[in-house]
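Hello forum,

I keep getting stuck at the same step: I have a sequence, I want structure tokens, and every attempt I make locally crashes halfway through. Rather than fight my setup again tonight, could one of you with a working pipeline run this one for me? It's a single chain of 168 residues.
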Amino acid sequence: MAESLAQTIVSFFQDKIPEELIVFIISLLPVLELRGGLIAASLLGVDFIPAFIISYVANMLPIPFILLFIRKIFHFLRDKRFFGKIILKLEERSAKKSESVKKYGRWGLLLFVAIPLPGTGGWTGALVAALMDMRMKYATPIIAVGVLIAGVIMSVISYGIPTLVSML
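Reply #2:
Ran it on my machine without issues. Output:
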């Protein structure tokens, strides 16, 4: 799913804005995040090191804001006609995903963010941490390391081992 979304966004923006900006925008988006950014960077031929840095920074940029404000945003939107059902679904999905995080604590959050599967990543990890009332000073570094690990895994998938080894 991330690959097809990234390809669609790349094909739409290609030749309109710089490749690095495309990678940045894709990496900012929920669902796609760093995974989609690295896939897009590979498709666009962006060198690995700048692609990794851009994807990582863009993926981490919204995390503190999610941790700080998502509960207030949900509280504000909960009684709005259109958003009530969406908020309820997001909270229910996050509650289901938070079971492993609750069971294993910080290690659970780290693994949840680090394993690049659909429905996991920095955004969802921050949402789960916020809904579990995990303090920002604990959640942010855990999510940062998880995104870094996911980035290493996705780098191997997107760029391939031979390409990465040739850069070293």
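The chain has a mean pLDDT of 88. If your local run keeps crashing, start a new thread with the error log.
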